[in-house]
Amino acid sequence: METNLEMKKKDSYRYNKWISHLNNTKDRTNYSVRRMDLLILAISGSGIYIIFETLREFKTGQINIENSSLLIWSGVIFLLCIISNFISQITGYQANTNEEKYIQEELCKMEGENYDECAQKDFDSKVINFNKWTNVLNTISITLMLIGLLLLAIFNYLLI
């Protein structure tokens, strides 16, 4: 049978573990706000820049574009990629914010303070839902970026 001191040590260890988890979650929240998915945005932004430069050259009459629909679709897909990536940043932020709230309720429960079990379950449900959407949107962003690159490469190949 455990003594009262051993129980307090276990509770203290568990409490400190939740505090650490809360701090890590806050760091992830800040990370979500500060950092957009740089690689996807850089590649998609570069793709859009290449399209604009190609269109500018086309207007000067130096090149003839026979497959302009590939160029236009590539640009639209890169733009959709950036939009879906931006929305995934918002859903990621929401997931982390709700996880912070869940952990704060858990800490109140461990401290013996009043806590709202219903709200805690609601926070947990929101975390699961926002994480699901973040994953879906990230997959969409990556897929759109690859399709945009493929269309741009096909367009470039047909120019040669």
As for the number of domains, it is: 1
Largest sheet, described in full? Answer: none
- Envelope shape: rod-shaped
Share of β-strand residues:
under 5%
Query: Mind telling me the C-alpha Rg?
Result: 24 Å
Helix content: over 70%
Transmembrane segments: 36-52, 72-93, 136-159
Organism: Winogradskyella vincentii
Protein name: DUF4199 domain-containing protein
Keywords: Membrane, Transmembrane, Transmembrane helix
Write the layout of secondary structure elements.
Blueprint: H1 4-34, H2 38-60, H3 68-111, H4 117-159
Question: What does it look like?
Answer:
With 160 residues, the protein is mainly alpha-helical. It has one domain. 88% of the residues lie in helices and 0% in strands. It contains 4 helices and no strands. It has helices at 4-34, 38-60, 68-111, 117-159. The longest helix is centred in the middle third of the chain and has 44 residues, at 68-111. 25% of the residues are buried.
Give a brief outline of the structure:
The chain is built from 4 helices and no strands.
Looking at this protein, list some descriptive labels.
4 helices, 160 residues, rod-shaped, mainly alpha
